[in-house]
Each structure stands twice: as structure tokens, then as C-alpha cells.
Amino acid sequence: MGNKNSLALLSLFVLVLGCYCFERGWSVTVSYDHRALVIDGKRRVLQSGSIHYPRTTPEVWPEIIRKSKEGGLDVIETYVFWNYHEPVRGQYYFEGRFDLVRFVKTVQQAGLLVHLRIGPYACAEWNYGGFPMWLHFIPGIQFRTTNDPFKEEMKRFLEKIVSLMKEEKLFASQGGPVILAQVENEYGNVEWAYGIGGEVYVKWAAETAVNLNTTVPWVMCAQADAPDPIINTCNGFYCDQFTPNSPSKPKLWTENYSGWFLSFGYAVPYRPVEDLAFAVARFFEYGGTFQNYYMYFGGSNFGRTAGGPFIATSYDYDAPIDEYGFLRQPKWGHLRDLHKAIKQCEEYLISSDPTQQKLGTNLEAHIYYKSSNDCAAFLANYDSRSDANVTFNGNSYFLPAWSVSILPDCKNVIFNTAKVVSQRSAGDLPFARSASTVNEIYLESSTWSWYNEEVGIWGNNSFTKPGLVEQINTTKDSSDFLWYTTSIYVKAGETKDVFLIIESLGHAALVFVNKRPVGFGYGFHDNASFLFKEKISLNEGNNTLDILSMMIGVQELKSELSLRITDILGNHRYVTAIGRNTDKFFYDLQNYGPWFDVQGAGLYAVSLVDFMSNGKNDLSSGTWTYQVGLKGEYLGLEKVSLANSSLWTQTNSLPVNKTLIWYKGSFVAPEGKGPLALNLTSLGKGQAWVNGQSIGRYWPAYLSPTEGCTDDCDYRGTYDSFKCLKKCGQPAQTLYHVPRSWVHPGENLLVLHEELGGDPSKITVVTVTGQEICSTVSEDDPPPADSWKPNLELVSQTPEVRLTCEQGWRIASINFASFGTPQGNCGAFSPGHCHADVLDIVQKACIGQKGCSIPISAANLGDPCPGIRKRLAVNALCSD
Ligand SMILES: *[C@@H]1O[C@H](CO)[C@@H](O)[C@H](O)[C@H]1NC(C)=O
Ligand SMILES: *[C@@H]1O[C@H](CO)[C@@H](O)[C@H](O)[C@H]1NC(C)=O
Ligand SMILES: *[C@@H]1O[C@H](CO)[C@@H](O)[C@H](O)[C@H]1NC(C)=O
Ligand SMILES: *[C@@H]1O[C@H](CO)[C@@H](O)[C@H](O)[C@H]1NC(C)=O
Ligand SMILES: *[C@@H]1O[C@H](CO)[C@@H](O)[C@H](O)[C@H]1NC(C)=O
Ligand SMILES: *[C@@H]1O[C@H](CO)[C@@H](O)[C@H](O)[C@H]1NC(C)=O
Ligand SMILES: *[C@@H]1O[C@H](CO)[C@@H](O)[C@H](O)[C@H]1NC(C)=O
Ligand SMILES: *[C@@H]1O[C@H](CO)[C@@H](O)[C@H](O)[C@H]1NC(C)=O
Ligand SMILES: *[C@@H]1O[C@H](CO)[C@@H](O)[C@H](O)[C@H]1NC(C)=O
Ligand SMILES: CC(=O)N[C@H]1CO[C@H](CO)[C@@H](O)[C@@H]1O
């Protein structure tokens, strides 16, 4: 006894003291060596998670950060979103959801650290990747290469953010929580396309960052040539095989995808926690010491912040904390157990490089020594099919396929990535009816009124030009919408039935002939361009053609962009286009010079084809009149101040299934503190506002393909973003998050801009007031990783069923409790052959509590069948 115990105590003390320092504002140095980040002279093993501050509201930052800390995170990572911080050049904005300083301080108050990814390029499925649109209009600018106007702006923004952090004393050397910064972002993936200009730019970016004297290390992710002292880090689904570009740098993983983002028109991706835990354990097994979940909490793309094209409003990401701030179980709990198990090994991980030992085919161990006979080990079976028994250190261990076991004393397994013992939610979503107490209310029908949007030109700021214009250049992204209008004259005796053919770079278009809707065309995330072809009937004489071209987020800069680049030596390089109408695009590029930073959007060809004679009438180079935005947007119909305006019409019957219409209604929010959701299943496509705040774009009419889903995805084998999908043939998103702080007692205003046609009377406001949770743990499962004591034999320590309710809720009832050989899955347990009814015991321990734990032992639960391995299964209901 004694020795190891006091060591453990000592390290715990140091840890607590470390947090204390950050909270109290004591100066701390941060450096690194080949093993780890070194904070205040000590190497640290750190778990990090991404939370993007504008993707939720400041009111819930503390709770999400608390849940991150309880989940075992040490560091919160965020990008900085330039386009919202500097909406107009030189005019900065740091309020509300964009209050970066408040966010960093909230993390600090929780005792956690911060990794600030200033970029300024963010990517992040964020509009234009985080670049302000005005940047694009600076004469001669070329993004992310050695271009003076770009470098000047980038440097100015980096300086702005660094000085803001310094003024608020937020760097670790000033007593703040920021221990790491990032310049650029995943540039290594596209650098090749920029030739020598790219290489020069990387050196410039590194030098510029280092000269900012943040006193904390800088990283460049996915950047193999990051110059010293910048640390190059890995992004990806797995990073165990990654090595930094210098033996003096530690192995850091800055983006480990907890799931994947959602796009309108696509099925919902998810990543099984067994695979995610496997990837993380493998990383630490292979010498990693810092790992970041992208995302730990994803949140929502409110307003028009979603990137493009077609990124959905939900940025849930299948993250450990879901879009609404609820714990996603068992993901959150299983990863917490993993973090605790790794934390038990920290002293070993920072003491040495791992020693590899082969244990068989696709079987290996990595051992970390503190001294010659004191070690921690990771045992891995990376075979995607076969389970295995291995012998290690004289003992035998069972290793399920695609799993890692963690042995903090080289002997006892306290965690296996494939063995999930943490609590589960009985259903998948927080609002799943089967598993939650859902409170659903309809909006009051008497309050609905509407406004018909005008078709075509509505304002005196329209303009007329020959030919078709590119949309982003024209709208400067001030609106998703651009009207393209022209007239078609049909002489007496000419054919009146023709095909209207529209070719667009994206993203969608609503087409009107003589002010009547004739169709809707749209692309998709992987290929935004589309061809619209519809048979139309024209009148003799003059006809109007009004095409409303729509954007669904401005494309981020991606490696697959088709680029024509002039490098600094004057060489032109062409980069192969993927998912693009190449001819047109190269044409555009040649005309637009440095325009490679946007993919372009809007119409590029419109023609009429006589389907009898096949004669073609090309309207593309004719005269077009343009109008940016919608009249309703111009009027500001979403504003609370217009709620009683006479612009709104009210009659007894509400027009439904109508294109281009605004609706206004009101609702009284259900009581409580929890988040709300709007169920917009009955609508088509548009945008919604609650009390003047945009909750984002909605598009339930866009169904995902019917094929490719697996409800029960096999976690074994290499994961990619297409492997595990659900909700095939359904809308990507039907529920839309309304933060609680955006509603107030009494009537709340809901405004919708519906583009395709829907029925707003079927909208409901949904809250959850309870959740079904469950857990099953066996006698021979390890004890909870945080209670494990290195000096005791594992067998003498007791596993436990642990249940915890969400904040504010308590355990209201126990619906099932059996000790023996219970059957079935979580939420649908049934007693097995061997069954002790332990309902009384579990009820006594749990009812009325926020959480409870029940030790799994015969002494506690009785023994219904001696000699048989038993488990405890419990199903409980939490409610407010
Ligand atoms: C960098 O910052 C540190 C701490 O704030 C300061 O002591 C040092 O003088 C600065 N160095 C330069 C070159 O500005
Ligand atoms: C591992 O060993 C156990 C106990 O000896 C045995 O039941 C099991 O079949 C073995 N599994 C494999 C995959 O060899
Ligand atoms: C029309 O122009 C006037 C004067 O420039 C301006 O005040 C008004 O807002 C414009 N109206 C519309 C609908 O564009
Ligand atoms: C057709 O209508 C447009 C728009 O009103 C007008 O500009 C054009 O002169 C008309 N053409 C003819 C031939 O009447
Ligand atoms: C993208 O869509 C357009 C229009 O449907 C089509 O012509 C083009 O071939 C597509 N490109 C790719 C790469 O699929
Ligand atoms: C962008 O639009 C402006 C005004 O509409 C025009 O002057 C300019 O030439 C356009 N640029 C490109 C590259 O199309
Ligand atoms: C609109 O009218 C209602 C009922 O008369 C009133 O309660 C509400 O305050 C008004 N809202 C605004 C924004 O003026
Ligand atoms: C809505 O209108 C479209 C055509 O305008 C029609 O095909 C569809 O059946 C209508 N849906 C409902 C629910 O009325
Ligand atoms: C949303 O509404 C649709 C009907 O419009 C319904 O089928 C669905 O169950 C609702 N979803 C939730 C989570 O309330
Ligand atoms: C650096 C890296 O590994 N990036 C990977 C991240 O995940 C995407 C999606 O599968 C891969 O395409 C990238 O290669």
C-alpha cells in the first residue's frame, strides 16, 4: 500500500492545483517536447473537444462546458469566425453568441483549458468557411496564397484576435486558459494546388503567427511542412499512424470526427461509439498525448451561418452532447469511462515512448514504463472480424474484434473500447416519443396571418443587363435570393408549347412563367449544379419568365474546387474539377481572374426548345432584369416590430401549399428551462424566425435517398462518413432548435418564409420533460474507471450500475430491474431464466435522486442462481 496510492494522490493534487491556477489567473508556461505539451513544467495527457460558441447561446455555454468537464475533457477547442466578427471591414462585432471573450472566460471558470483556432480560415461547414464576403471584393486578392492584399487582411485579423486575448489576459502566461493556438487550417490538403506560392505562404503564416508572441505553442493541422516551432497535427477518423514532422514535436490529433455533418437531402450519418473509442485508444496506444473530438458538442447553424452548399441547420454531428445540449448516451458515458481509464495511465504515458509487442495476427500491445517493472499497457485487436484471446505478461485476456483494452498496471483491464457499460438512452433522439416524455403543442390557429411575396421585380433597385450574371458577385451574399427575369415574345402562329431548359451552377431555383409557378430545380451537397427541364405553355404575345435563384450557404474553400491558379512565378496551373460543370467554370475563372475562392452560383444558360422541331431559342445572352433579395426581406417581415403591421393578412382560411408566402403565428412556450424544438415536418423549404431571431433554414421537403442506411451499423472495420447512415427516404431534419433564451412568457412570434408550399397549421412546438434511461452491467465487468485502485486486485472491486438524470431531472420511476440473466436490449428488457426481482432495492436507491449507483454483488442483490455469471439490468424514467 502507500506508495502508489500517494503517487496517485499527488498527481491528483497537481491536477487540481493546475485548474486552480487557471481559475485564479496565475501565470503558467506552455511548451512542448517530443512526448507532450508541457504545462507548467509537466507533460500533460489531454482530452479536448470542439464547441463552436456561435452554434449555441451564451446562456447554455456553462452547462455544456460543465458536461464536457464531467465527460473527462481538459480542453475546449473552437474556431474563430471572422465573417461574423468583422461583418464590414474595420467594424468588429463580439456580442451575444459571438462574444468570444465571454466564451473563453466561461471555459476558464469551469477550470478547463482552451485551444483557439484563429485560422482565420475555419472551413467548419460554416458560411464561406468563415471568410467575410467583402474580402472577396478586394481588388487583386487571392486567398490563402502569397498575395499581398490577402496577407495584409489575414495579419490584421490575427493581430486583432491575439490582442483581444492579451488585453483580457487569456493566454496561459497571463493566467488565462488558452494553451494552444492555430494558424491556417488543413491547408496541407490544398497546398499542392498553389505551387510555390503555397509553400511561401505557409512559411509566412507560421512566421506571422509566431511573431504575435502569444507565448503558447501554435499548431497547423494537416500541414506536413509546418515550419518549426509550429506543431503539425493530424485530422481524420483515425490518427494512430500519424507522426509529426520533427522528433521534437508531440503527436497531437486536432480533429477526430465524432460523427459527421448533415446536409439537406442526405441520410443522417452516425459513428458508433465503440469505433470512436477504438480510434482514440489506438491514438494514445501509439504515443499520442492530445486528442480533440470534432465535435464534442455540434449545436445548430442558426440564421444563415450554415456553410455551403446544402449544409443543414442541425450541426448535431452525432456528438457526445447532442444539438439540444442533452448527453448522447451511451456515447458520452463510454467516452467518459475511456478518458478516466487513460487518465489512470497518465503518469506512464508521459514517462516514456511506447514499446510495441506483437501478440499475434492483428494483435499487439503497447507498453509504457515508468520504471522497469512498473508499467501501463494497451492491448489491441485491430482485426475487423475475429475476437481473440491473447496472453500478455503471463495472463490471458479476451479481446473482441476491433477493440483496445486498457491496463493501467499492466495487469487489470479497467476498460475495453467494445464493451459499453455506461448508461444508455432508451431512444435515439431527445425527442423520440418511444423514449421520452414529449410535450407537444400546436400554434394557436386564430393567430395565423400571411403575406404573399411578390413574384419577380419588386423594387426600384433592380437593374437590367445583357446576359446572365453570377449570383454571389451580384448579391454579395446579402441574401440567398436573386431574381432573374426576362420576357418571351410569341408571334401569332408560333409554337406555344416548349421545353424550358435552365442550367444553373446552383443551388436551387423556383421558376415562374407569367407569374405562375412551373417548377423547382435544385442540386445537392456533392454537386450543386443542376439542369431544370420543364414543358411550359406560352401565351401569344408577351410572356414573363421569373426565375428565383437560391443559395443554401456559400461554399467553403475545398481542395476539390476547380482552380486556375497563377503562382508567383507566373505559371498557370489547372486543377481538375470535381462535381462541377467544367467548361463553364473555366470560362468564369478566366474572366474573373482571382475568383477561385468561390465556386459560383446562379444561372448560366436558359433556353427554350421546341419539342416538335427541336429548334432552340437561347435566352442566355438576351436582356435580363435582376433584383437582389425578396420584398419580404427588404420589409423586414421577420421583425417583431412588424408583428401588428397591416402588411399581414388574416382570413378564416389559411392559404396552404402555396409557393413564396410568409406566415406569421404565435405560441405560448411550454414551461420549463429546457430547449424547445419546432416540428416543421409539414413545411417545404424556407427560413424560420422566433421573436425576430432566425432559427435557420429548413427544408423537410428534400428527402434523402432510400438506399444506403443501416440502423444497426457494425462498428468493426474502418469507418468513413458513408458507412453508418439512418433516416433513408426521409427529410434530413424535421426538428429545429429554438434556444430557451429566445422565448419569453406569454405570446411568442413565429415568422416563416415558405418557398415551396406547406401547411403551417400542423407545426408543433415540442419540449421534453423526461427521458427513459437504462443500464446493464455484469458481475465480471470492471469497476468504474475512476474508482479503480491500482493497489487492489480487480476481482475485489465491485462493478456498478450507475444512472444519472439530466440537469434538473430526477429519477421518477424504475420500470424494470432484474439481477440474473435478463434478456433483450435497453428499453425492452425482460427477465431471463435466472431472475431475482430487485425492484425494491433499486427503487430505494434511486427514486427521487438525481442519480444513483447500485453495486453488482450477491451480497447486495441476492443470488438467484449460484455459479452462473449474472448481470443487473435497470430501466428508469427521469423527469422534472
Ligand atoms: C512577448 O510577451 C511576453 C509576455 O507577455 C513579454 O515578456 C515579451 O517581452 C514579449 N516579447 C516581444 C518580442 O514582444
Ligand atoms: C477465449 O477463451 C474463452 C475461455 O477460455 C473461450 O470460451 C473462447 O471461446 C475463446 N475465444 C476465442 C475467440 O478464442
Ligand atoms: C426606392 O427608392 C427610394 C429612394 O432611393 C428608397 O428610399 C426606397 O427605399 C426604395 N424602395 C424600394 C422598395 O426599393
Ligand atoms: C414585353 O414585356 C416587357 C416587360 O413588361 C417589356 O419590357 C417589353 O417591351 C414587352 N415586349 C413587347 C414586344 O411588348
Ligand atoms: C453535376 O450535375 C450536373 C447537372 O445535373 C451534371 O451535368 C454533371 O455531370 C454533374 N457532375 C458530376 C461530377 O456528377
Ligand atoms: C461583379 O458584379 C459587378 C457589378 O454587378 C460587375 O461590375 C463586375 O464586373 C462583376 N464581376 C465579375 C467578375 O463578374
Ligand atoms: C400587437 O398587438 C397585440 C394585441 O393588440 C399586443 O399585445 C402586442 O403588444 C402588439 N405587438 C407589437 C409588437 O406592437
Ligand atoms: C400541393 O400542390 C402541388 C402542386 O402545386 C400538388 O401536386 C400537391 O398535391 C399539393 N399538396 C397538397 C397537400 O395539397
Ligand atoms: C413531427 O410531426 C410529424 C407530423 O407532421 C409527426 O409524424 C412526427 O412524429 C413529429 N415528430 C416529433 C418528434 O414530434
Ligand atoms: C487528414 C485526414 O485524415 N483527413 C480525413 C478526414 O476525414 C475525411 C472524411 O473521411 C477524409 O476524407 C480525410 O482524408
UniProtKB/TrEMBL annotation:
It comes from the Eukaryota. Coiled coil: none annotated. Residues 1-21 form the signal peptide. Keywords: Glycosidase, Hydrolase, Signal. It is an enzyme of class 3 (hydrolase). The keyword GTP-binding does not apply. Its EC number is 3.2.1.23. GO terms for biological process: carbohydrate metabolic process. The keyword Membrane does not apply. GO terms for molecular function: beta-galactosidase activity; carbohydrate binding. It catalyses: Hydrolysis of terminal non-reducing beta-D-galactose residues in beta-D-galactosides. Belongs to the glycosyl hydrolase 35 family. This is Beta-galactosidase. It comes from Turnera subulata. The lineage of its organism: Eukaryota, Viridiplantae, Streptophyta, Embryophyta, Tracheophyta.
